[in-house]
Amino acid sequence: MNFDGFNFDSDTRRTLSLLVSANRLPHAVIIESRSAQKALEVATYLSAFAVCGSGEKPCGACKQCKNAFARAHCDIQYVKPDSKSKTGIYNIDQIRALAGDAQIRPNDADCKVYIFEEADKRFPEVSQNAFLKLLEEPPQRIYFFLLCQSAKALLGTIRSRCTVIRTGGDALPSEDALESAKAIARGILSSREYELLRALNDLTDKEKQADILLGVKLLLRDALAVLSGGDALTDSETARLLAARLTRAKLIGMIELTDSSDYKLKQNININLLTTWLCGEYRRILWQR
What we know:
By secondary structure, this protein is of the alpha/beta class. The protein has 2 domains: 10-166, 3-Layer(aba) Sandwich (Rossmann fold); 175-287, Zinc Finger, Delta Prime, domain 3 (Up-down Bundle), CATH 1.20.272. Helices cover 53% and strands 9% of the residues. It contains 13 helices and 5 strands. It has helices spanning 10-19, 36-51, 63-69, 92-102, 119-122, 125-136, 156-159, 175-189, 193-200, 209-227, 236-245, 248-266, 271-287, and strands spanning 28-32, 76-79, 112-116, 142-148, 163-166. Strands 2-3-4-1-5 form a 5-stranded parallel β-sheet. The longest helix is centred in the C-terminal third of the chain and has 19 residues, at 209-227. It is elongated and about 60 Å long.
């Protein structure tokens, strides 16, 4: 993939590369980020990828890319709340009209893209249900990007039909997922392997998997900060426990391992195999000299 002109961190680049494996883009993507601006940058990038006709997408040089980067492409619609809406929501009539528009052939590109900003705040349940019908039977060459701070604010039926991605290190895990991540951190330090396996079992919850692994990575990074004399941003107590037992090299190794497990999850690895592998690898790094 060509990332020229986009200042994406390494995590975001890896996520986007995985997303468009085999040079194909999912028809519906939820882009989750604490930063609305960064989520919009990812949506702009993916929009250019969708409309670009070059081999290495997005090329950045063709007419399609230039218009997409300028957010002025006739086939890329940044959906705005109905002007008559005082609450700034996507109302059901608007969604129905959009469904009709999606049936019309694109003007300039080979596809059409619809981008919904602040989807978690602007999509009432009744409109989500209307939108669900469009997601279930989308016209060919139509892409939907839903931007939000928390995908959990959207209906489960919506999320199940979309690919959910996060932008780099902007997102924070939920409180529930962070508790699971702290249990994994304690399990890593425990003398009993069973405690780590039991904590890793929380990864069987597909709704929490990404959040839990993010939490583990943040806790390990906090421990690195503590070793360097800095402050923990996520959980100072857990960070101090990790820093007291693990060297800098071991912490870095575990962060890389956690990244690798996140990659494996995206490849739909068997979760039981993953947790067993993770347990063994965390323990190996813990006891290595």
